């Protein structure tokens, strides 16, 4: 009869160190990937801006009318 009562109770064993490490690595890689995509996008936009500026297609000087 003692075993029947023990089956229904969930026993908390504490945090799993291996699971916590895996969660941390996964989250770190995901956020790091997003950060790199953001950084690459900014680099591309900056390169495009300076390429257009060098070609003379755009100017940073306001023209007088």
Automatic annotation (TrEMBL):
Domain of life of the source = Eukaryota
What keywords are annotated for this sequence in UniProt?
Membrane, Mitochondrion, Mitochondrion inner membrane, Transmembrane, Transmembrane helix
Transmembrane helix is among the record's keywords = yes
Location comes to: Mitochondrion inner membrane
GO cellular component labels: mitochondrial inner membrane
Major localisation: mitochondrion
Spell out the InterPro entries in the cross-references.
Answer: COX5C
Family per record = Belongs to the cytochrome c oxidase subunit 5C family.
PANTHER family, from UniProt? CYTOCHROME C OXIDASE SUBUNIT 5C-2-RELATED, CYTOCHROME C OXIDASE SUBUNIT 5C-4-RELATED
Protein's job: This protein is one of the nuclear-coded polypeptide chains of cytochrome c oxidase, the terminal oxidase in mitochondrial electron transport.
* Name used for this protein in its record: Cytochrome c oxidase subunit 5C
| Organism name | Arabidopsis thaliana x Arabidopsis arenosa
